[in-house]
Amino acid sequence: MKNSLIAISVAIISILMTISCTKDAGVVEGEMATDAEVILSQKLVGNTIDNCKEGTLLLFLEEETIARIESGEMEAVKSDIFVDKNIICFEPALRTPKNERLARELGLHRWYSVTFDSNIPVRKFAAEVAPSKHISAIEYNTMVTLAADYKVRPFSEGSYADTKATEISFNDLYAHYQWNLHNTGDKSIAETAREGADVGVLDAWTLCAGSPDVVVAVIDGPVKYTHPDLAASMWVNEAELNGVAGVDDDGNKYVDDIYGYNFNTAGYSNGQINWTTSGESGHGTHVAGIIAAVNNNGIGVSSVAGGSGNGDGVRIMGCQVFDGSYAASDRDMSNAFIYAADNGACIAQCSYGYDPGSYASDNAYINATSLEYNAIKYFVNPENCNHPSIGQNLVIFASGNETTSNAGYPGALPICVSVTAYGPDYLPTGYTNYGRGCNIAAPGGDYSIGAQNSSNKSQILSTCVREVAGDDYVWMEGTSMACPHVSGVVALGISYAAKIGKKFNGDEYRDIVLTSVNDINSLLLDGTKPYNGVSNAVVLNDYYKRMGTGAIDTWRLFMQIEGTPSIVVATGERCSIDLAEYFGGSATDLTYLGVEVSDEAKETLGISGNPTMKKGLLEIKCTKNGSAKITVSAIAGGGQLGGGNNIGGTEIKREVSIISRGVYSTNGGWF
């Protein structure tokens, strides 16, 4: 379920327009205005006062003022701005970013935070300081609230003993419930379950199961770093782990940030990740488990990028922005993005977002949340790329759970990836947002279509906080669950690229992620499906071509990383595939030497005998859902090979990937 952050918004102008309006209104810099409320309205950007954090303000200072502060005149500036006021703290809104040049270019150095007596109304304090010549703009430090339905459904092994949702080879005890990783179409999950409605990771694991140098920052609720299925997957700040308690041993401005940091200023753990606050649901821990619960360790669940049991899974950095029922402020979330960029994360996993009705356009969001927006830009800037195999870090957001025809922000921004959700039936869930701003689909779970007496199984099983749920594993559903599937696949792809020595620049890697998909539209032509007990609640045609590019597929991503073309065939049907795409326009005239298929590939695809080539057409029948590579050989020049006493042609070979699916696009689905 999605951590929806809802704040009431108004039409807001940008900082530059605000400054311009201030001057146009006849306010002379250095003079105190007679009407402080008018000046405040001209300098105010961002969200309304509703849900703001009491006793704090965010101030965007003039460049000249910043220069004075940096030259040692902090006390003089404070006296000028806060005349006769008792303030508790006046400091930069962000901890010092490592990339100072970029931070200054984005204006992040000009944001300051002031803390004052919480008994003073925030608007009154803001109006009194607004006329200061030092302040270009003012933003309320909004405390967005959690608006998610945290239905944590307990897991009970004995209740689901008949389930065989998957055939995962890892020895994790509950892997056979994880249809999201490999879906066999088991009807005990849902009567409408479809084989192949998963992230296509099973066969990809034979090539790569992860890499510890790939770090995913989970910007969410707390990740329980002592969880038995997550402890070995945590990013560890060795300097702090082996340092002195209470000391910033690595000098990154964060004390004791061993597994990450708690940025939630409403929490009570002084920066320590904390999962015991009243109202905690285990959401962040559930998300982390989908990405990197340790695979093949004999306990719990499997995950997308949790390795093979040899310490080779990706790592999770805990960036806590929610603490129980306390939500983060704009300042807290911004610091989380800066921290993740500066401490090695190459993916920011974000299963939260503002209600899709809060902002009507990219500019409306950007103008309203300038600090957070520029912190995201800092994270994705190529200068801050944290893995040599990709050109820039990626930000993955949940699209939202409001059944609305556009994604929520920040995920709807072009610099982010927004994820929609489908169920084990390969159809959109009744809760998912879709349409504008949505980029790609992944399993999110769908309680409403669950088999009778076992509806939980159609959701997503993952790790949780025992102190909250009474167990280490629970079922949840939502675009919050779809989002980490994409983050896990993206992380796995980076791991594989590094393994085979491939590197990508700029947006290249993101672009191949968004085109490494299976068709989902062929299922959405007509009809309805149930949701929340209403038999025809979801009108499927509404989602046609509006779930993003398609359903993410790990094997496809690996093949694109390799540069190996993929061909989709229908499981159980004899298919003829034109190979002119791979052997040229004269493919029908070539002499073919044969098709090489390993025993492993035959088993994976359910092939008996070898596929054949006839006049440029590959004839193949696969009886299983699966993915594997085959090699086709032909002669370039003549009907026989040269060599020895012969004059003949040269042998040419092309390796192609075969993807066998029960559901596939009629155009072959090649990308």
Textual characterization of the structure:
It is a single chain. The protein is of the alpha/beta class. It has 3 domains: 3-146, no CATH class; 165-559, Peptidase S8/S53 domain (Rossmann fold), CATH 3.40.50; 565-661, Immunoglobulin-like. It has a 7-stranded parallel beta sheet, with helices on both faces. It has a 5-stranded mixed beta sheet with strand order 2-6-3-5-4. Strands 23-29-28-25 form a 4-stranded mixed beta sheet. α8 (283-292) links the parallel β10 (260-262) and β11. The two termini are 31 Å apart. Mean pLDDT is 87; it is low at 1-34 and 666-671.
Quote the beta fraction.
Answer: 15-25%
Kindly report the name of the CATH homologous superfamily of the largest domain: Peptidase S8/S53 domain
Predict the CATH topology of the largest domain: Rossmann fold
- Approximate helicity band: 10-25%
Distance between the termini: 31 Å
Shape: elongated
Q: What is the top-level CATH class of the largest domain? A: Alpha Beta
Structural class by sheet pairing and helices: alpha/beta
How would a crystallographer describe the biggest sheet? 7 strands, parallel
At CATH level 2, the architecture of the largest domain is: 3-Layer(aba) Sandwich
Number of helices: 17
* Total domain modules: 3
Number of strands: 29
Q: Can you list the strand order of the major beta sheet? A: 10-11-9-12-14-15-16
Mean pLDDT: 87
